[in-house]
Amino acid sequence: MSNESESLAGGRARLPQGVRDLLAALAGRHLVGNALVGPVDGACLTVVDPATGRALAQAPAAGPADVQAAVAAARAAGQAWARVPARERGRLVAEGGRRIAAASPDLAPLLAAETGKAIRTECRPEIATAADILAMFGGLATELKGETLPFSPDMLALTTREPLGVVAAILPWNVPLVLMALKIGPALVAGNTVVVKASEEAPFATIEAARLLADLLPPGVLNVICGTGPACGAPLVRHPDVAKVTFTGSQAVGEAIYREAADKLIPVSLELGGKSPMLVFADAELDRAVAGAVAGMRFTRQGQSCTASSRIYVDAELHDRFVERLAAAVSNLRMGDPLEEATDIGTVINARQRAKIMNYIARGEATPGARAVRCGHLPAAPDLAAGLFVEPVLFTGLTEDSPLMRDEIFGPVACIVPFSDEDDVLEAANAGEFGLAATVWTRDLRRALRVSHALDAGYVQVNQNLTIQPNLSYGGFKKSGLGKEASLESMLEHFTRKKTIVVDMR
Ligand code: NAI
Ligand code: MG
């Protein structure tokens, strides 16, 4: 025990004092009924700083009893919250977003320490985006409208939008605050109460951000529990009082949640994997396309994005120049301590993910005809020797049947493939089981539109490669998921139920 406390103190030593205090307050606790409480049986798990390999703090390892407590708190708060005027709910959620943004000086290093993501390129922008999303949904509260229907002159026929009840929101570790905002924003504004299941890999910034918002709300409206998938996530999905599940994560878990939800006949929103194509035509502006590939592959996040543009099809005329310039651009990114301002790229989340990525890289390198272009330099600092850094790799010479061209690697690995015919490249781009996003790079607007229509992906961008944008519906086709996020549509379609009321006035 004393060894453990020593190593915990060691892992935290490099953090600013305010963040250390925060971790001390959060250690072993999650948020139920607006109180920071430990799990019923006291069970904990260790959260590791992936840049140093040292323990950061203990997090709760919630089990079925904690799920029960959190769902009961959410259920108890439900009726009163649903009766709060929509505009007031919206105002509170937007104000919560402002508090989260204001807490960025503590939240950003906390997020960087638990995820390994660089503070400047990833963590601060993530917090700002999360706040922006909450502000947007707060403002959409007045859009929770029904209709009146021309049914008969002496009948009053109308529809209303009601909350669903208790929503379970299950989060991954890659962008936990943005994904939490995309789920709790529309759920709360629509009058639902929520139990968030934080990722056991990186729960602290999630719990703290939720605490800042929950402080404004009646107890039980927003709860966050932390535990593993099997011990905490699964019983949450199965709980009879959970009326809706919204999930972002792996395809396998998404499919399992869908099966569980079928038994209860409750709605689910699933945001799963991707293998998103980027199509660079001969007339594209090369520099913009290269910058778009750097951004779209999320190299500053070590490629840990479901939207990552990991299949890059480039017109044969441009191919070699594109690879050369992309390699130069990625090599310019500085890999290092996530907590340092100068760092562009931090680490991946854990050893398991790193091993998975390295295994793909090894398979690519062993493929006859393939070439791996390594971009970047692992940091030399001795205290980062155990850090889970991965050098970005660009592969050329792989064919469509390669697992690197098919599977979601969730690491800094991009495959670049030449093409010479629009129909052929569309067929290749649309192959595979995913259909999350795609980008098209061309100066020919007619081609841009033709290709955008033909792409089998839920989110298509032309001559840009942005992340999820508040107000634009985001969600995948095929095995990439079910439902939309980030928009008014997501709130109305996925967090309310519609009731028809008919009054006979005769
Ligand atoms: P995961 O799908 O296992 O974990 C995501 C969340 O689901 C976590 O909170 C986890 O505790 C929970 N969970 C796990 N099993 C569950 C169950 N049976 N019932 C309910 N909740 C459960 O993802 P993992 O293992 O962290 O990452 C593996 C791969 O998944 C990545 O390599 C990547 O390909 C993909 N992934 C995709 C993400 C996306 O943004 N779409 C995010 C994270 C991972
Ligand atoms: Mg960790």
From TrEMBL:
It comes from the Bacteria. InterPro entries: Ald_DH/histidinol_DH, Ald_DH_C, Ald_DH_CS_CYS, Ald_DH_CS_GLU, Ald_DH_N, Aldehyde_DH_dom. Pfam families: Aldedh (PF00171). Residues 45-501 form the Aldehyde dehydrogenase domain. The active site is at 271. The keyword Disulfide bond does not apply. One of its GO terms (molecular function) is oxidoreductase activity, acting on the aldehyde or oxo group of donors, NAD or NADP as acceptor. PROSITE patterns: ALDEHYDE_DEHYDR_CYS, ALDEHYDE_DEHYDR_GLU. Keywords: Oxidation, Oxidoreductase. The keyword Oxidoreductase applies. Belongs to the aldehyde dehydrogenase family. This is Aldehyde Dehydrogenase. The lineage of its organism: Bacteria, Pseudomonadati, Pseudomonadota, Alphaproteobacteria, Hyphomicrobiales.
